Automatic annotation (TrEMBL):
<dbReference type="Pfam" id="PF02771">
    <property type="entry name" value="Acyl-CoA_dh_N"/>
</dbReference>
<dbReference type="GO" id="GO:0003995">
    <property type="term" value="F:acyl-CoA dehydrogenase activity"/>
</dbReference>
<dbReference type="InterPro" id="IPR009075">
    <property type="entry name" value="AcylCo_DH/oxidase_C"/>
</dbReference>
<dbReference type="GO" id="GO:0050660">
    <property type="term" value="F:flavin adenine dinucleotide binding"/>
</dbReference>
<feature type="domain" description="Acyl-CoA dehydrogenase/oxidase N-terminal">
    <location>
        <begin position="38"/>
        <end position="94"/>
    </location>
</feature>
<protein>
    <recommendedName>
        <fullName>Alkylation response protein AidB-like acyl-CoA dehydrogenase</fullName>
    </recommendedName>
</protein>
<dbReference type="InterPro" id="IPR037069">
    <property type="entry name" value="AcylCoA_DH/ox_N_sf"/>
</dbReference>
<dbReference type="InterPro" id="IPR013786">
    <property type="entry name" value="AcylCoA_DH/ox_N"/>
</dbReference>
<dbReference type="Pfam" id="PF00441">
    <property type="entry name" value="Acyl-CoA_dh_1"/>
</dbReference>
<comment type="similarity">
    <text>Belongs to the acyl-CoA dehydrogenase family.</text>
</comment>
<keyword id="KW-0285">Flavoprotein</keyword>
<dbReference type="InterPro" id="IPR009100">
    <property type="entry name" value="AcylCoA_DH/oxidase_NM_dom_sf"/>
</dbReference>
<keyword id="KW-0274">FAD</keyword>
<dbReference type="InterPro" id="IPR036250">
    <property type="entry name" value="AcylCo_DH-like_C"/>
</dbReference>
<keyword id="KW-0560">Oxidoreductase</keyword>
<dbReference type="InterPro" id="IPR046373">
    <property type="entry name" value="Acyl-CoA_Oxase/DH_mid-dom_sf"/>
</dbReference>
<feature type="domain" description="Acyl-CoA dehydrogenase/oxidase C-terminal">
    <location>
        <begin position="265"/>
        <end position="340"/>
    </location>
</feature>
Length: 370
């Protein structure tokens, strides 16, 4: 068995040729703004990875999709982060169609277009604002003649430069003025949609995570779906489950790139290397166990509780593996190339994806009463 052999096979099966394309570039080239990674992902079929086969997609399961993301992140972290956000949007659309095809009648054609036209979707669902409930939209819609006017800002928004469509949760005023959840499908070239620089860090700069601003963007009625709360809430919860599993896969992949270097160079003792393998593979298997519970139709509230546990357990494990792997690779590896320091920095990104440990703590405790 080769380290991450299942992940590499999954990448080659679902996105043939992508690994070879990425291998032609240095890590530093793939991690800068305007890098070739995202377009390579698109060209090799990345847009349709999790689209069901009946809509022309590849139909990757949640387990296989996680394996693809892990290997992709080991090769090109920024591209994997961008792919993760695309998959978050697509899996939400898929879940909506499976829940109620009539309520979400516009989504099947969109899923077919994603597959056929290789469309990439930016996500406006998970919000990164301090103190913001990630299930509460920051974008606002108001009814007007001909549809809806949308206003608000999404930042950071990955794929801001390569997106064909922005999918976003929006607050839509109901008949009594109380905001209700809507799902908006916003073309990247919509009048009033602008992109501005936002991401200033060198880490994961290639994911195109900039500011997307909506100023009186007009959407036709069919471009905004306003489902009842009893349908919208389970969709949001299931979307968060998929998102957290993708977060685990991506950052496990980033750290696996360091472990792969340790193993390839036989750094440290056999025990040192075995300890790294045990910890990194335990993290991957923990997330996969939750993914398999989702495949087995685990109730969404139980799946959400389990994935929160997996996310923070993975976060802790990866922190330990990063420190040990960097130490084992040694000072010369650290100073002779920027790759080791870069991967170590990028790995810390897992801590900044919502929800934060503090905001999730109460829900975790409530999910496991004595």
């Amino acid at each position: 068995m080769v380290f991450m052999d299942m992940e590499r096979r999954a990448l080659d099966e679902y996105l043939p040729g992508l690994a070879d394309r990425l291998a032609g570039f240095e890590l530093t080239e793939l991690e800068t703004d305007g890098n070739p990674g995202i377009e390579a992902f698109r060209a090799c079929g990345g847009a349709k990875l999790v689209v069901p086969e009946r809509f022309g997609g590849s139909g990757a399961s949640i387990v296989d999709a996680a394996r693809v993301l892990r290997e992709l992140a080991a090769l090109a972290p920024s591209t994997a982060v961008a792919a993760m956000m695309h998959q978050f949007s697509v899996t939400t659309l898929v879940a909506a169609v499976e829940q109620d095809p009539q309520e979400f009648a516009a989504f099947p054609d969109l899923l077919a277009a994603i597959s056929g036209k290789r469309m990439l979707l930016a996500s406006g669902f998970a919000e990164g604002m301090r103190g913001q409930n990630i299930l509460e939209p920051t974008l606002r819609a108001e009814r007007t003649d001909g549809g809806y006017l949308l206003n608000g800002v999404k930042k950071p928004c990955s794929l801001s430069g390569s997106m064909d469509l922005l999918t976003a949760s929006v607050a839509v005023p109901g008949p009594d003025g109380t905001p209700a959840l809507g799902i908006a499908l916003i073309p990247a070239d919509a009048e009033g949609l602008t992109v501005a620089p936002f991401w200033s860090s060198f880490a994961l700069a290639g994911a195109e995570s900039n500011e997307v601003r909506l100023d009186d963007v007009l959407l036709a009625p069919e471009q905004l779906v306003n489902p009842p709360l009893e349908k919208a809430l389970p969709l949001q919860m299931l979307g968060l489950v998929h998102f957290q599993l993708s977060v685990c896969a991506v950052y496990t992949g980033v750290v696996s790139a360091l472990v792969r270097r340790v193993l390839a160079q036989s750094r440290g003792s056999v025990t040192d290397r075995a300890d790294l393998i045990v910890e990194i593979e335990s993290a991957a298997l923990t997330a996969e166990a939750v993914a398999r519970r989702v495949l087995a139709d685990e109730p969404v509230d139980r799946a959400l509780a389990a994935v929160q546990v997996a996310r923070f357990a993975t976060q802790e494990s990866l922190g330990r593996v990063v420190n040990r792997a960097v130490e084992l690779l040694g000072g010369m590896a650290y100073v002779s190339s920027s790759d080791v320091g870069y991967l170590a920095a990028a790995a810390h990104g897992i801590a900044f994806h919502p929800p934060s440990r503090t905001s999730a703590a109460g829900a975790i405790v409530e999910s496991f009463p004595a």
